[in-house]
Write a structure and sequence with these properties.
Length: 281
């Protein structure tokens, strides 16, 4: 079976730089996975400490980068992704969402044993056609950091695909309206990008949108204060570390996953950062 290459050139660029990458003409886009089915039943997982630190993985395009692609470091092939999550499951990790982590940290919910969050930035169609399909096999949710301008465009996610991901247990969080560097805009634009994206996603999908993701990891005190004022509970960065309930909730670190990272490499990185699992080797 020939795996179609995602049309990411229309939406990729803000995460890695200023210009969008070019790629070869794609093969036909796969049919969106929006069957209208009921939400999946989550498998039971063992409960762990409610205050455990959590690694938050950071993904972008789940497709093989075409030759000469700009920001090739933001592409992870479907096969590599499938091997990575299989290795995580074999090591004893259990995927959860930021909302579930937040509630557990504050004593209002439970944390799975050996928790991990898989976050996906921007809103590429491959996150539905490849990532969602792979995670569904494990009954795992993802966290979609969605840029509003990427909804409904070529290479981006349709509203139907986002709703289908939600039915599979995915959390939808805000990643601004246009993926602008928030440290470079005036106060009015800053509020519009931060609060406006939350309001748009809430209206479009009927979800709380309680968490924010800084575009390209760029933030400062003014940006963080604006995110807090907009009503978010926390925000994620591109700083490399484990997320902990003791840290600033508006500067939660993540672990970037790149195309050259093997499944074994990923598990090893998590152990070096201090993540625990049932099978450390």
């Amino acid at each position: 079976m020939i795996v179609a290459v995602v049309v990411a050139s229309a939406v990729l660029g803000g995460c890695g730089g200023s210009a969008a990458p070019r790629q070869a003409t794609p093969s036909p886009t796969p049919t969106p996975l929006d069957s209208g089915s009921a939400p999946v039943q989550r498998p039971r997982v063992p409960i762990g400490p409610h205050d455990a630190p959590v690694p938050i993985l950071m993904y972008h395009v789940i497709a093989a980068a075409p030759p000469g692609a700009a920001y090739a470091e933001l592409w992870v092939s479907p096969d590599a992704f499938a091997h990575q999550i299989a290795a995580l499951a074999h090591a004893g990790y259990h995927a959860t969402t930021l909302d579930a982590v937040w509630r557990a940290w504050r004593g209002h919910g439970t944390m799975p044993l050996h928790p991990i969050v898989l976050s996906f930035d921007d809103g590429y169609q491959s996150q539905s056609t490849h990532a969602r399909r792979a995670l569904d096999r494990l009954g795992w949710p993802g966290v979609l950091n969605l840029v509003v301008k990427n909804v409904g465009i070529a290479g981006g996610l349709s509203r139907g695909e986002v709703r289908a991901m939600m039915r599979d247990g995915w959390e939808i969080d805000a990643h601004t309206l246009t993926h602008v560097d928030l440290t470079t805009v005036d106060p009015t634009r800053l509020v519009h990008e931060v609060a406006g994206s939350r309001a748009w996603l809430h209206r479009a999908f009927g979800v709380p949108v309680d968490f924010f993701c800084y575009p390209a990891g760029r933030y400062d005190a003014a940006v963080e204060a604006t995110v807090h004022a907009a009503g978010y509970l926390g925000a994620t960065t591109t700083n490399a570390a484990m997320a902990s309930h003791e840290d600033d909730p508006f500067a939660m670190p993540r672990v970037r996953v790149g195309p050259q990272m093997t499944a074994a490499d990923l598990v090893a990185v998590l152990h070096r950062l201090g993540a625990t699992s049932a099978r450390p080797s």
